[in-house]
Design goal:
By secondary structure, this protein is of the alpha/beta class. Helices cover 49% and strands 12% of the residues.
């Protein structure tokens, strides 16, 4: 009997009861869990989705820096799951060809301006280089996202033109200068017969004012001037103009104009590529546009203002404020031009939408705004002329 009891006790020591087994199993699991939480999570390496984006800008242009600001924000936020590789103009296609290349999937994305596909439909210019209603580029971008402009844009690009792209506007460009001239233009009559470079509907505008217009990408401007193809030109801003050497071939720089007073960049994605991304990555691409909108403007203010002074002080460029009489003639030319252009139903739809929206928005802003010019002239004791 004693031997039988001893054998039973020994078995209990070797094989714990079901209750004890359950406790030990739970305790072990708890201990394992505690051990795991004591160490950082180790991410599993993954291959990022890579988007190939090309800009429409020469290698030295500040616009490349602005494109890279967008790319950096996307890449930083995507956490290694998505990466944009950025290329300068000409790396895959020419500057005016980036829209087609993106639509066809030759590129996954591009950084350009709507006016560069003006040849497909003149309505392209209405998204930044069209008539002026008292608005600037900040208002144009606001109209695009809040005033119904993007829906019209999407219909034009995807349905009317059949392009396989998704597009966003970014960076409210400051008013573009009237341009560079061998002799200052004193009145609108000085444009008659002048061989002048611009793009988009600005070409129609200057032709209506008597100029002979040639449309060229920025990188072709100075060679065209040196060959006598053009006598005068505008591109965009003091920094871009100085970087491609405008000051080395011409010395009169006229500031202020209504030919391109509200332009912005356009960031385009191949639609199948964009639609195929997970929702959070699409959101990063979209909201990085808003981040770059501010970053681009801040960069512009720092560079454009500094480089205008360098053009004046170092390069002895004669910087002139465009006479109001010329800008008034530009407004009149826009009025006449839009009568004809407005016969196109898409252009009319855009024009009517912008005109109604700007009337309310610009009225509010102008009525409410402080007189900043008055304040500047008071503080610095100088007249802006």
């Amino acid at each position: 009997m004693l031997k039988k009891l001893l054998r039973k006790d020994a078995k209990a020591l070797v094989q714990p009861s079901a209750t004890r087994r359950k406790f030990l199993t739970g305790a072990a699991a708890a201990t394992t869990g505690a051990a795991i939480t004591g160490f950082p999570m180790i991410s599993v390496a993954q291959t990022p989705i890579v988007l190939k984006m090309q800009g429409a800008w020469g290698a030295k242009d500040i616009f490349n820096e602005m494109a890279e600001q967008y790319v950096k924000r996307v890449n930083d936020m995507a956490g290694g799951r998505l990466r944009i590789d950025y290329l300068v103009a000409g790396a895959v296609v020419k500057a005016f060809e980036v829209m087609d290349a993106t639509s066809k999937g030759v590129l996954d994305a591009c950084h350009s301006v709507p006016v560069y596909w003006y040849g497909k439909h003149k309505a392209a210019s209405m998204f930044g280089t069209g008539p002026v209603f008292g608005n600037d580029a900040h208002h144009t971008i606001a109209w695009f996202y809040e005033g119904g402009g993007k829906a019209i844009y999407d219909d034009l690009v995807q349905k009317t033109l059949g392009l396989n792209v998704v597009g966003f506007l970014v960076f409210p460009m400051p008013t573009q200068p009237f341009g560079w001239f061998k002799k200052p233009i004193k009145d609108a009559a000085g444009l008659k017969g002048l061989k002048y470079r611009t793009v988009g509907l600005a070409a129609d505008l200057f032709q209506a004012m008597g100029a002979k217009v040639t449309q060229l990408p920025g990188g072709e401007i100075v060679p065209a001037l040196e060959r006598g193809v053009i006598d005068a030109f505008e591109f965009n801003n003091p920094t871009s103009d100085m970087r491609f050497g405008a000051q080395d071939v011409i010395k009169n720089y006229m500031m202020g104009s209504f030919h391109q007073a509200s332009e912005s960049f356009e960031i385009l994605f191949n639609k199948p590529k964009y639609d195929g991304l997970p929702p959070d990555l699409r959101a990063i691409l979209r909201y990085a546009v808003e981040a770059a909108n501010s970053a681009n403007f801040w960069l512009a203010m720092e560079n454009y203002s500094r480089d205008l002074q360098i053009l004046k002080d170092k390069h002895k460029v004669n910087v002139i404020k465009t006479p109001n009489s010329i800008m008034l003639e530009q407004l009149k030319a826009w009025d006449t031009l839009m009568v004809e252009l407005g016969k196109d139903p898409i252009i009319k739809k855009i024009y009517d939408s912008q005109k109604a929206w700007y009337e309310r928005v610009v009225y509010y802003e102008q009525y409410n705004s402080a007189n900043y010019r008055l304040a500047f002239e008071h503080v610095y004791k100088t007249k802006i002329v």
